[in-house]
Amino acid sequence: MAIEIALAYILDLIFGDPRWMPHPVKGIGWLIKKLELFLREAIKNERIGGIILVILVVGVSWSVSFIIIGLAYSINGYLGAILSIMIIYTSIAAKDLDIESMEVYRSLKKKDIISARKKLSFIVGRDTYNLEDREVIRAAVETVSENIVDGIISPIFYAFIGGAPLALAYKAINTLDSMVGYKNEKYKDFGWASAKMDTLANFIPARLSALFLPLASLLAGKDALNSWRIARRDGRKNPSPNSGIPEAAIAGALGVQLGGLNYYDSKANLKPFIGDGIFALEAGHIKESVKISYISSALFLIVGAFLIFCIGRR
User: Fold this and answer.
1) Gap between the Cα atoms of 9 and 89, Å rounded
2) Total domain count for the chain?
3) Full residue range of the structural domain in which residue 229 is found
4) Phi, psi angle pair for 305, to nearest 5°
5) Are 12 and 97 in contact (CB under 8 A)?
6) Phi, psi (5° rounding) for residue 272?
7) What is the distance between the alpha carbons of residues 146 and 202, in angstroms, rounded to a whole number?
């Protein structure tokens, strides 16, 4: 299992998510849309409908991958392993996080704020059309920090626990949250279960990130002690019980301050400040946060593989 996860991680580092390749998330997204339409019509209680949506989408994602991988293994062990690797590979998003955030970085280095705002809009949910350089940098660093857990550590964590089927089930939970887990009028009830399930699924990986990010910061030449200190001090300030932890760890490592005023669909949302702001935010902090994301995920993979090896020897 550890070898399959390591190979999946390496595939992601090399290829990312090629746009031409069929991706399970697209299928999961299609299923969510179809079931949402059906459940809203069939069940008048939106919260119950949302709970059923989560059960069906996560259940189908896990079951289909489990059955397909099982059939593949029954035909040929190598075929089963390859399919397992490919599913885990599609659940990890380290390379795409790098590519998309570095596009913002390069636009800022060229002093093309219009391009930077546009490219930022592809990876964040907040309004970006009127952001100045510093706010673009803050948004990019925050999304890199948050996605270290959502896009890398969590899928690897669940792959170690339950292989490819559980990694894909996690991806289904994450996709549900991104599609319906909003607190607006349309989804506050229907998306309640999706948001809660995503919070629950990321609870342990987010707290594990508080251990690995300071160590990764040390290896990246950043302030590991401050990363640990700020993660402990400010990690719970964010309204999200999970995303604040990696954001605080990165803020401490880089010596910057994150959080503040954001706009979503022109509505103001003030988030608590995280970090001490020892240094002013600069475009280079995006690059540094990406570097830390790679090191922390590699460390997490190595430690996880070592633990699996030790358990297997017992």
Assistant:
1) 6
2) 1
3) 2-313
4) -65, -40
5) no
6) -60, 150
7) 11
Whole-structure pTM over 0.90, yes or no? yes
Query: pLDDT tens across 3-26, in order?
Result: 999 999 999 999 988 777 778 999
Amino acid identity, residue 130? N
Distance CA(311)–CA(120), nearest Å, equals: 42
Rounded to a whole number of angstroms, the CA Rg of the chain reads 20
Give the closest residue to 176 by CA, choosing from 22, 68, 29: 29
**Cα–Cα distance, 228 to 135 (Å, whole number):** 24
Helix (H, G, I), strand (E, B) or coil at 255: coil
**Hey, what's the torsion of the CAs at 290, 292, 294, 295, to 10 degrees?**
170
pLDDT tens, 276-307?
Answer: 999 999 999 999 999 999 999 999 999 999 88
The SS3 assignment for 268 reads strand
CA dist 256 and 222 (Å) reads: 12
The full DSSP string for 187-236 is: TTTTTHHHHHHHHHHHHHHHHHHHHHHHHHHHHTTS-HHHHHHHHHHHTT
Q: What is the distance between the alpha carbons of residues 138 and 258, in angstroms, rounded to a whole number?
A: 6
Give the C-alpha separation, 99 to 96, whole Å: 5
Choose among 204, 218, 94: nearest CA to 160. Answer: 204
**For residue 299, which of 188, 233, 224, 192 has the smallest C-alpha distance?**
224
CA–CA distances in Å: residue 266 to residues 137, 138, 143: 20, 18, 19
C-alpha distance from residue 216 to each of 71, 75, 146, 166 (Å): 39, 41, 15, 26
Q: What is the CA angle 275-281-283, rounded to 5?
A: 135
